[in-house]
Design a protein that fits this description.
Strand content of chain A: 15-25%
Radius of gyration of chain A: 18 Å
Distance between the termini of chain A: 39 Å
Oligomer: heterodimer
Order of helices and strands of chain A: EEEHEEHEHHHHEHEHEEHH
CATH superfamily of chain A: P-loop containing nucleotide triphosphate hydrolases
Number of domains of chain A: 1
Largest sheet of chain B: 8 strands, mixed
Helix content of chain B: 55-70%
Low-confidence stretches of chain B: 390-396
Number of strands of chain A: 10
Structural class of chain B: alpha+beta
Number of helices of chain A: 10
Number of strands of chain B: 26
CATH architecture of chain A: 3-Layer(aba) Sandwich
CATH topology of chain A: Rossmann fold
Structural class of chain A: alpha/beta
Low-confidence stretches of chain A: none
CATH class of chain A: Alpha Beta
Radius of gyration of chain B: 33 Å
Shape of chain B: elongated
Largest interface: A-B, 29 and 25 residues
Bound molecules: adenosine-5'-triphosphate, magnesium ion
Distance between the termini of chain B: 23 Å
């Protein structure tokens, strides 16, 4: 569904040079929820941005739904993002002038595409926002806003959804709702999702966890539980590795 | 705090520049006006001190009424006074002022003239201190002239050439025998005859309006005045040469005062419009920096410090705007000088920048900016420190309903004031009319934010239908802060309200003139003599043409009579009755033959006149004339004045050299071959070079052309206020793009293409512009209709709403919106998505 090969991203030059990604290769299969973990500054966001065609890697290749994105022009990249990729940011995901409903259908509106009514209804029911559809973002709680953002990421049936710390700003109750929603979309709709998280309990919802450190994949965990994730994290803790 | 201010300016230099620009344009108008005034002053001081060179004492007859050109008509003094004056011990020389109008025919056979500038002639004087002979010798007899070198150059002639000169009814064949230098003439053409010829031409009755007296060396001008007064008749007066120069300059200054008034009105408009933009920009800057300002407050900055910080930015903007505006004003003055030159007024005073101009410009820029920034600054100081902690900062949006109420109240007040005017046409003073117009403006300015939603919903509908999501988002953005949108649109509203009001008035004026002239003028041909008018001889020549039944000349006679207009028309009853459909309300037209005068219905009403009323005062050069009203006629623009006096009285009142008909109506014999007679009339007036012959249709069209020409000037100046308005939209858009950086990044991330983003911003701009345009058009329409009703008595009888122009204005506004969006849109599309998203 999506594949990265030897992704390198270098920021700055000379002394100020940062190798945010130092050769990352990974594959994301259909209907799989992958969690990405790693210490702060390890390159998780950079990786997500490169995968989601929001940023261009210094070298390496990214393939989304069979399309190689290296060398695509802005127009094609925009269309790719609009039609094949969903994205959920940590915060400020919504356009403040639009209602929840309008925010959800935004990618379709922009594309001028027809709304699949059944699909839309299913998403709304899954995120449980029916009562709030006519509200503006400022009238929604943080958790509700993130749920709207998730619904928007799914509405155009993208090939893959990237979520960068979608629960980073939420309390445990709201986090749990988002995570269960993501889980259900994978299980019930066969959606492919890649999610960055710092929390082992969140990662435990995933089918697979990838560990990043210093711009490299340093570990992989299948069928994770909170305990095994914590174990792995300790193993990759940079403080311990240096010693 | 100063460091924070400077950082703020440096961080947003583009916005700083745009804001300065709106101040700049207003200041430029004021500075330009001042520079031009000084320059005109210098020009005329130069000319008059040159003209009065060597004149120690100026002797003139009793002062009569002021003619349209600003000069005074004076009762004549006998030419024999010259000898008496020269007999005085300290008088070296006395010379009668033998001056009048003389039109030189150039090499190409047409009149040599500069627009409306005078065509002057006076008599040659050996060793005249005023002139310097460049080439040739003194003219002798009626067949020789000297010509001023600039005039000669314009004529394409040289010394030795033969040509013609038209003086009143006479066409003289002359030879140019000298070229003289005078100095600056402001476009006036100058021809000189020898003294006997001048007496013949300009003082045929043996009297002249004035004498120039030159004293012996060492005698003061004051002492000489004392001596001269001893020999003067009681009706004459003597003043020093210096006083004469001052008086001439002052008269000229007054005559050209309208130019200043005109320009200062536009300066006022651009400053008001600029003020709106400044308020808006500062409000936005402060809204954006709420968190920063709150943080400053949280760490202990006082409310006063915050106000001072904001005002410091305003001072910087005001100074920059004032300074650059001053420079632009000098440029504007240069452009206006060029424009004046094309109208025949050559300004030779350069571009003097006086201390007054500098001080006024800088102060104005400063005061306008600081006053406009004061409200936002005070609002800024009220930001609670806690706002620093809030994530989502928005200035509270409230009070729209209160605004709507206020606006309605003002509107009702305005309508209540308008209502009586609409019923009783022409009542109310000028001041109350201005008050009504201002009230309407205020209502719209106050109510605009409340109107934003409904108006934009309507104007946005077609666009929203075209592109659903983009259109909807653009509308949402335009309505996000109705007060801001309204303030931005207000600038355009003011400009367009004036444009629409003017176009309603002009369309009405054109139509009214056309229909009135059509209705009232029975004449088959109309003769016009341009600025100098036509002397008796010319109308006589036309009267002699076969097939012409009668010629009714309209002679302008200046009046200084309480209860009478400044200008009366002298005419002959029979000819007037032939040419113009004069509806008598009381009395008959024939009373003119008995020496009585006619007054218009509205003058009779205003001044409480009726048949038998008498008026007295100065008529032309007659100091104590008595006028008896013999009839009242229905207001009639074809007559051109609200008072008609007998042709005989006009002849007595206006000295021969100044006697001229501004306009003459020609009626043909019934059954005459119109084309043939017209050709004969054209031939008859041909030698007089400047007389034009028009048939009815041509005359009617020429009338409306004049109105349109005047309008073009107004439009050009109003266009400047529209330019300022565009700057305001650019400024607001640039600011809101900046404000919404993160949102734009998000939209791009979700898949909004660059062209869609561009379209979204353009639409927002178009909505704002159309909003302002619709309000402006409605407001202007209201004002135009109101003014037309008020001016019905002044001849604005027909109301015409120029739908075409109004639609054009709306379409242009949409284009204005598109243009204004270009830069902000380019900036928005260049945003890096990731950086935009991570902005806080
Ligand atoms: N625009 C940039 N310019 C320079 N360096 C950058 C830029 N963006 C990221 N970096 C650097 O690249 C590295 C990886 O950053 P990235 O944001 O991907 O980390 P992350 O794993 O998402 O961290 P976090 O968990 O804190 O979000 C960091 O060292 C960061 O400083
Ligand atoms: Mg990150």
């Amino acid at each position: 569904m999506a594949r990265a090969r030897d992704l390198v991203k270098i920021y700055g030059e000379g002394d100020a040079q940062v190798n945010a990604l130092a050769g990352v290769s990974a594959e994301f299969r259909r209907g799989e929820l992958t969690a990405i973990m790693g210490p702060s500054g390890s390159g998780k966001s950079t990786f997500m941005h490169c995968m989601a065609a929001l940023d261009t890697p210094t070298s390496g290749s990214v393939e989304i739904d069979g399309v190689e994105i290296a060398g695509l022009k802005d127009k094609a990249l925009t269309r790719l993002r609009r039609d094949r990729i969903g994205f959920v940011f940590q915060s400020f995901n919504l356009v403040p002038t639009l209602t929840a409903e309008e925010n959800i259908t935004l990618p379709l509106d922009i594309a001028g595409a027809k709304l699949d009514k059944d699909w839309y209804e299913r998403i709304i029911d899954t995120v449980g926002l029916r009562a709030r559809l006519r509200h503006k973002p400022s009238e929604l709680s943080g958790g509700q806003q993130q749920r709207v953002a998730c619904a928007r990421a799914l509405v155009s049936r993208p090939a893959i959804v990237f979520a960068d710390e979608p629960t980073g700003n939420l309390d445990s109750q709201a986090s749990a709702e988002i995570l269960s929603f993501l889980r259900r979309s994978v299980d019930e709709f066969g959606q492919t999702i890649v999610m960055v998280t710092h929390e082992p309990s969140a990662a435990a919802h995933a089918d697979r966890v990838l560990f990043l450190a210093d711009g490299r994949i340093v570990g992989e965990l299948l069928e994770p539980t909170a305990a095994t994730v914590l174990e792995q994290m300790a193993a990759h803790d940079p403080a311990q590795r240096v010693s | 705090m100063r460091r924070v201010t400077m950082a703020g300016i440096r961080g947003h230099w583009l916005r700083f520049l745009l804001t300065s620009l709106s101040v700049l344009l207003g200041v430029a108008f004021v500075a330009g006006t001042l520079v031009l005034t000084d320059s005109l002053d210098r020009t005329f001081t130069g000319i008059f001190s040159q003209a009065n060179k060597g004149t120690d004492v100026y002797v003139s007859g009793a002062e009569g009424a002021t003619a349209i050109d600003g000069t005074n008509l004076r009762s004549g003094l006998p030419l024999t006074l010259e000898a008496e004056l020269e007999r005085l011990p300290d008088v070296r020389r006395a010379a009668p002022e033998l001056a009048g109008s003389a039109i030189l025919v150039g090499k190409d056979g047409t009149a040599v003239r500069n627009g409306g500038a005078p065509t002057l002639s006076f008599s040659w004087l050996d060793d005249d201190p005023v002139l310097e002979v460049v080439d040739g010798r003194a003219p002798r007899g009626p067949g020789e002239i000297a010509v001023e070198e600039g005039t000669l150059q314009k004529a394409g002639l040289t010394v030795g050439d033969r040509t013609r000169v038209v003086v009143g009814p006479r066409v003289m064949d002359v030879k140019i025998v000298a070229s003289v230098r005078f100095g600056a003439l402001a476009g006036t053409t100058l021809v000189l005859f020898d003294e006997p010829t001048s007496v013949n031409l300009f003082a045929p009755d043996g009297t002249t309006a004035a004498f120039q007296v030159q004293g012996n060396p060492g005698v003061s001008q004051e002492a000489l005045v004392g001596q001269v007064q001893q020999v003067l008749p009681p009706t004459a007066e003597a003043i020093t040469g210096e006083a004469k120069t001052e008086k001439d300059t002052a008269t000229m200054r007054q005559a050209l005062g309208f130019i200043n008034t005109f320009l200062l009105v536009f300066a006022g408009i651009s400053l008001v419009v600029g003020g709106f933009i400044i308020v808006n920009t500062f409000s936005m800057l402060i809204a954006q920096r709420t968190r920063e300002l709150a943080l400053l407050r949280a760490i202990g900055a006082g409310a006063g410090q915050v106000v001072r910080m904001v005002l410091a930015e305003a001072v910087a903007i005001g100074l920059v705007g004032g300074l650059v505006g001053l420079g632009a004003g000098v440029g504007l003055a240069a452009a206006l000088q060029a424009a004046l030159t094309s109208f025949g007024l050559e300004v030779s005073g350069g571009l003097p920048v006086s201390a007054r101009t500098v001080i006024v410009s800088l102060l104005l820029g400063l005061v306008v900016t600081v006053v406009a920034a004061a409200v936002p600054a005070i609002r800024a100081s009220r930001i609670a420190p806690i706002a620093a902690m809030r994530d989502d900062v928005a200035m509270p949006e409230k009070g729209l309903r209160r605004r709507a109420l206020w606006a309605t109240a003002l509107l009702l007040l305005g309508l209540a004031a308008v209502a009586p005017a609409l019923r009783l046409e022409g009542t109310g003073s000028n001041a109350s009319q201005v008050a009504v117009v201002l009230l309407l403006f205020a209502a719209f300015a106050v109510g605009a934010p409340a109107l934003a939603r409904p108006v934009i919903a309507v104007v946005g509908a077609p666009f929203a239908a075209l592109s659903r999501s983009v259109g909807r988002m653009a509308r949402g953005n335009a309505l996000r802060n109705p007060r801001r949108t309204a303030a931005t649109a207000s600038a355009l509203m003011i400009g367009l309200a004036l444009v629409s009001a003017v176009s309603v008035l002009s369309a009405s004026a054109t139509e009214s003139t056309k229909s009135l002239v059509n209705q009232l003028v029975r004449a088959d041909l109309v003769l016009e003599g341009g600025f100098t008018g036509m002397s008796d001889g010319i109308t006589d020549a036309v009267r002699r043409v076969g097939g012409v039944k009668s010629v009714a000349g309209l002679r302008a006679v200046p009046l200084d009579v309480d209860g009478a207009p400044q200008l009366a028309v002298g005419s002959d009853a029979a000819a007037l009755a032939d040419a113009v459909d004069v509806q008598m309300r009381s009395g008959t037209l024939d009373v003119l033959d008995d020496g009585k005068v006619l007054v218009s219905e509205s003058l009779a009403k205003d001044e409480d006149l009726d048949v038998g009323s008498t008026l007295s005062g100065v008529v032309g050069s007659l100091p104590d004339a008595k006028l008896t009203v013999g009839g009242v006629f229905a207001d009639n623009p074809a007559i051109g004045s609200s008072m008609v006096i007998p042709a005989k009285l006009a002849e007595q009142a206006v000295p021969a050299p100044q006697r001229a008909d501004m306009l003459a109506y020609v009626v043909l014999d019934p059954g005459a071959d119109a084309a043939k007679v017209r050709a004969a009339v054209v031939d008859a007036v041909k030698p007089y070079v400047v007389v034009s012959v028009q048939d009815r249709d041509e005359f009617i069209n020429a009338q409306s052309d004049q109105i349109e020409q005047l309008l073009m000037t107004i439009y050009v100046l109003l266009a400047l206020s529209v330019v300022i308005a565009v700057l305001g939209i650019v400024n607001t858009l640039a600011l809101s793009v900046f404000e919404r950086t993160r949102e734009i990044g998000l939209l791009r991330a979700v898949g909004l293409s660059r062209s869609q983003l561009r379209r979204m911003i353009t639409l927002e701009s178009v909505y704002t512009a159309l909003f302002g345009a619709v309000l402006g058009a409605v407001l202007g329409l209201g004002i135009g209709v109101f003014m037309q009703h008020v001016l019905v008595d002044e001849g604005l009888t027909d109301l015409v709403v120029p739908t075409g122009s109004l639609v054009t204005v709306l379409v242009l506004s949409a284009i204005v919106g598109i243009v204004a969006a270009v830069l902000p849109a380019v900036r928005a599309t260049r945003l890096n998505i990731l950086k935009a998203i991570s902005v806080d």
